[in-house]
Amino acid sequence: MRAIVGAAHTWSIGGADADLAALPELPDGPSFQLAPDPVRPERVAAGTWRRMSRLARIAAACAAPVLERRADLDALALFWGTGIGEFSSTATFLRSLFLKGAAGASPLAFQNAVHNAPAGHLSIAFGLRGPSETVCAGPLTAIRTLERALAWVMLRERPALVLVGDDLGPEVQQGYTFADAGAPMGEGGAALLLLPDGDGPTLTWEDAPPAPGDWHRRHAYPLEERPMAPGPAHDARLGLYPAVDLVALASAVRRGGVVAWGGPGGPVRLVVTR
Amino acid sequence: MARSTPIQITRFGALTALGATEPGFEALIAGRDGFGPGPDWVPADQPVACVTAPLGPDHRTFALAFAALEGLDVDPRGLAVVFATTTSAMLSGEAAIESWVRGEQPARPVDYLWSHLAHWPAVAVAQRLGATGPALVVSTACTSGTVAIGVGADLVRSGRAARALVVGADGLCRTTTFGFRSLSAYSSTRCRPMDTARDGMAIGEGAAWLLLEPRTAPHSAGGARFTLLGVETSSDAWHLTAPDPEGSGVVRAIRGALGGLDPSVIDHVNAHATGTEANDAAEAAAIVRAAPRAAVSATKGASGHTLGAAGLVEAVWLLQSMEAGVIPPVAGLVNAVAGVDVSPFVREREQTIGVSINLAFGGHNAAVAFVKEPA
User: Fold this and answer.
1) Which CATH superfamily, name and number, covers A2-273?
2) Among A194, B223, B303, B354, which one is least packed by beta carbons within 10 Å?
C-alpha cells in the first residue's frame, strides 16, 4: 500500500512539529514526559475548546496546520486512532459518580468519555462532515490506524486525514504507576494528510517478518501480563505511548527513509521516499 | 484481491437479552422484550436488558463475545478480527477506580487503567481463534458495530486479510448506565422507539458477529446468500451528543451505503431508534428523505441499546428478517411518529435490499446495506 503525504504535523514533548533527531534521549527508568499544553488553533471556537479534553486538544493542535487551506473539509475522511483513549474523561466521570452519587455525575465528562469524542470535537471545530472512524489497537494503534486509512485511500482514491494521539493526564499517570510501566512514558499526537496521488513524499507500507512470539505474549490477554514492551528507538526521545509511531513517522516525513516499526520485530515498516 | 470484489456474509450469530441467534430472533418476532432485573447497582427506575445465559469468568464484554462465538469454526489463516465496543472491560476497571477514589488500594491495581483500554477484546478473540490477520477495535460509540463491518470488508478487499470476523460486544457497566442518566437521556418507564410518547433510551447488553469473505469463498450450506452492498459513515459537525435535527448526515450515510442506487430500492430499514426525543426525530426526518418506500423496524424496545454491539446485533436481525421475509414488530410502540412505516405487529414482506442505521456521540452516523441474492 502507498499514498502521498500531503501534509504532516505533530504535537509531542518537543512541542509543535519537533524534529525528532534534535530531541535529547530520555533517561532510563520510569518517568512521565508531558507535552506542552496545546494552544487553541484559530479555527477552533473558544467554546468548543473549553469543552475539549486534553486529548482532544492535542488532536486539534496536530490537525489544524494540516487542514489549513483545504477546500474539501466538508467531505474529508477522518481516521482517528488512540490507544489510551478517553481514559482521563472516563476516570473524571467515575470520580464524580462515586463521590457525588448519580445526581452529581458529570454529563460533560461522560460525553467526552467515548474514545471517538476527539473526532467529534474536530468535526464540529473544522466542519468535517465526511467519513469518520476511530481505531484502538493498543501498542499497535498508530500502525493499525494508518493501515486502515491507507486501505481506505487506496480503495476509494480519495484523501483522508489520519490522526492519532494519547494523553498523559494525572489519571493516566496513576494507571501507569499501578501497571508498573517501568519506562519513560510520553504523550502527543500526529496528523498526516494522505492523498491518492499528487506531489509530495510517498509513504509505502511494507510488511515485515512476523513478530517474535515473545512480543505477543507480552501484549497478551489476560490483563495481568505486563503490558508494555520495549519500543522502537524513537521511544527513547519521545517517551512511550501507543500513538508514538505515527509521531515519529510524521516528524520524519521531512527527511525520508525507513521511519517506523510497528512494535519490536514487526509487523510492518514504513518507508518515506521524497 | 480486486478492490471491487464483492464481500459476502457467510455466517452470523448474536446473543442478547432475548437469547441466542435463533431463539432470540423468534422472541423478537413474537414481540417480546428482554428487560428485567439487573445487577444490584442499577437503580430501580432504570430499565435494563441483561443477558441471562450463563457466561464464562472473563470480563463481561469478553464473555458475551466468547459466548456468542461459541462453536464457530473458521480458518484462522489471514483472519482479521475487527471488534466493536465502547466499554471493553470497563466494568472491572470501575471497581479499581472506585477503590482509589475512596482512598483504598484497588484489589487489582492493573485494572485501574488497563481494563479501560479498548483494544483487549480484539486481542482476546484473535488469540482464542488463532487468527493471524490484523486485530483491532473500532470504538465510535454507538456506530461502532456498523463501522466495523466496513473496516472488515476493506481489510479483505485491500488484501490485508483473507477474511474478516467482525464482532461487537458491550456489557452493562456503571459508566454508561449512569452516564446516560446524567444526560437525562434515560427512560424511567420503558424504551419506546419511534413512539410519540417516547421518553428516553434504556441500556441492554449483547454480542453479535458476521463473517465476511470474498464472493469466491464457498457459501455455507443452507440459508440465503447475502452480499454487502456498502457501508458509509458521516459526521454532523453539529453537537457532541445531539444529532443534526434534519438528519442530513444520516441521509449521506444511507446514500453512500447504497452506492448510487435509487433510495426507492430499500425494502427494509432497521433504524437506530434509541427512543430519545432528539435521535428518533432526526432519524425519522432522514428516513423520509433517504428511504421513503422502506418498512422500518426498531429493535431497541426489545433488546435495549447494546451500544458498541448495536450495529452488529441489528445487522444480524436485519439479515434474519430478510431471510424470513418479515419485518419485526416494534416492542413498546403505541403511537408511531409521522412519516415512518413502523408497526407494533410483525409483517410479512419480501426483501431484497436492507439497510441498518446507527447514530453516535461525536455526531457520527453509519449505514450498512445488504443484498439478498436470488436462491
Assistant:
1) Thiolase/Chalcone synthase (3.40.47.10)
2) B223
H helices, E strands: number in chain B: 11, 15
- Across the interface, do B234 and A95 touch by the CB < 8 Å criterion? no
B114 contact residues in A (CB cutoff 8 A): 175, 179, 223, 227
Count of all residues that appear for chain A in the document: 274
Q: What is the DSSP letter of A243?
A: T
pLDDT by 10s per residue, chain B, length 375: 555 789 999 999 999 999 999 999 999 999 999 999 899 999 999 999 999 999 988 899 999 999 999 999 999 989 999 999 999 999 989 999 999 999 999 999 989 998 889 999 998 999 899 898 889 999 999 999 999 999 999 999 999 899 999 999 999 999 999 999 999 999 999 999 999 999 999 999 999 999 999 987 665 545 568 999 999 999 999 999 999 999 999 999 999 999 999 999 999 999 999 999 999 999 999 999 999 999 999 999 999 999 999 999 999 999 999 999 999 999 999 999 999 999 999 999 999 999 999 999 999 999 999 999 887
Q: Among all residues of chain A, which has the CA nearest to that of B173? A: A94
Q: Are A199 and A115 in contact (CB under 8 A)?
A: no
Residues from chain A that touch B157, judged by Cβ atoms under 8 A, are: 151, 155
Cell readout for A64 is 489544524
> Domains, chain B, ranges and CATH?
7-214 (3.40.47.10), 226-372 (3.40.47.10)
Which of helix, strand or coil describes residue A72? coil
Q: How far is A97 from chain B (nearest CA, A)?
A: 8
> Considering the entire predicted model, what is its pTM?
0.95
Pairing of strands B295-297, B48-49: unpaired
Q: Which among B113, B134, B151 has CB closest to A175?
A: B113
Domain ranges of chain A: 2-273
